[in-house]
Design a protein that fits this description.
Blueprint (H helix, E strand, L loop, with lengths): L10 E3 L4 H14 L7 E3 L17 H4 L13 H11 L5 E4 L4 H9 L3 H4 L2 E5 L11 H4 L2 H9 L5 E4 L1 H4 L3 E3 H7 L3 H14 L4 E3 L1 H10 L4 E10 L6 E5 L4 E7 L1 H12 L2
Parallel strand pairs: 1-2, 3-4, 4-5, 5-10
Antiparallel strand pairs: 6-7, 8-9, 8-10
Helix pairs in contact: 3-4, 4-7
């Protein structure tokens, strides 16, 4: 929402209470003065098996603020399909959660990946961490469908690089100033009750759309095992690009420069 080079066309939610997740997005959009952005609830359950995400801990931090809880679930696929088909070749699809909506979208309309400008995901673990990452683990079948789908380009930001973008709780409280970041900081307090820092997994993937030099990449093919969503990377020919290293200080400079205008 703060990135001046972005035209944000919509936000979709997935897994668990998709209406509470949509409410979080709604509150953040309202604080940012962006009530024009469509927010659409998606699929609640994992496709075949997996734990999903039944809890929405951050909702408690915004539950007292005005918001809706009446969006129609399972509407995300149709919304994304219509939006992408209305702007062929222009849209970057950013996924920062489990792949339930995206797997259904690609299965329903296999042409969609070829109508996108790019697909960017915070998902997977390719160079350590037992090749396990939560967005893939909580809906393994969906991750497997997306990884196996035919698509011209897909950039992955795995746990290996995103874990290097962390700030301690005290620094978050000091630097997250202004209405929008203060609201995010209030949601982060849930995590600070059991961990001393906040990792910027998703913001890195979003920032690299506009500042690709923040990372170095390896080209090849991503493989995901549908039974347990372990992710593997085979370098060489392939349409997948995996972030291999990160310039974390440059990322934080960029993040706060954009967020503080």
């Amino acid at each position: 929402m703060r990135q001046p080079r972005a035209e944000l066309l919509g936000i979709t939610t997935v897994t668990g209470d998709v209406n509470k997740r949509a409410a979080i997005a709604e509150v953040l959009c309202r604080i940012a003065g962006r009530e024009d952005i469509p927010i659409v609830a998606g699929r609640s359950d994992a496709l075949a098996h997996g734990p999903g995400q039944p809890w929405t801990a951050q909702y408690e931090a915004i539950s007292h603020l005005p918001h809706r809880l009446d969006r129609q679930p399972n509407s995300a696929v149709e919304f994304m399909r219509d939006t992408i088909r209305s702007r062929p070749g222009e849209i970057t699809l950013l996924t920062i959660g489990p792949f339930g909506n995206i797997a259904l979208l690609f299965a329903l309309d296999p042409e969609i990946p070829f109508l996108l400008k790019n697909i960017v995901s915070m998902a997977g673990a390719f160079f350590g961490h037992e090749n396990h990452e939560w967005n893939c683990k909580c809906d393994p079948a969906a991750c497997g469908i997306v990884a196996a789908s035919k698509r011209p380009t897909h950039t992955w930001f795995g746990l290996d690089v995103t874990l290097q973008c962390a700030l301690p709780a005290d620094e978050i409280r000091q630097q997250f100033t202004g209405d929008l970041l203060e609201c995010v900081a209030s949601m982060a307090e849930h995590w600070f009750s059991h961990t001393p820092h906040l990792v910027f997994h998703d913001p890195l993937a979003a920032a690299a759309i506009f500042e690709p030099h923040l990372c170095d990449y390896a080209q090849g093919r991503v493989i995901s095992t549908p039974e347990d969503a372990h992710t593997y990377f085979e370098s060489g020919p392939g349409n997948d690009r995996v972030a291999a290293t990160i310039k974390s200080r440059e990322f934080f400079d960029h993040f706060f420069r954009v967020m503080h205008g």
